[in-house]
Amino acid sequence: MKKIGIVIAVEKDNVIIRAQRDSSCGSCAGKAACGTLGSWNLKEKNKDDFDIRLPNALNAREGDIVTVEVPDQLILTASMMFYGYPVLAFLIVGGLAFQFAENFGLSGDLFSAIGGLLGAGMTWLWLMKRADSFEMPKMVEIQK
Asked: In terms of CATH architecture, what is 2-71+136-143?
């Protein structure tokens, strides 16, 4: 997906680009909480505007109109990795901890809760360390 936006600020090696959200985003139930791995930064301006901070790979200046390319699979992949996998780890590790505790005559509920939380937390931390491997949005063109 490609978006056209305007550079509203240049900060060291990064730029902040403001663009309008697509109409397809308007019907999404998660639009208010959309974070796309922390890159999107919604502001209190026009409800259809969003800002994104990107590396200034093309040496854009304030006021330049730029094209930003967002990988199509980014949102789906990020959602699965940061919501789906930790929940799956919670269920699997929690179930294993419950069986382990019951076999030794301990409180299965307590061990299940603790094990599930530890499994989800460790999975989430492991995935956060891999976040840099995602293909992130990038500025691809400065329009003349």
From this structure: Beta Barrel (2.40)
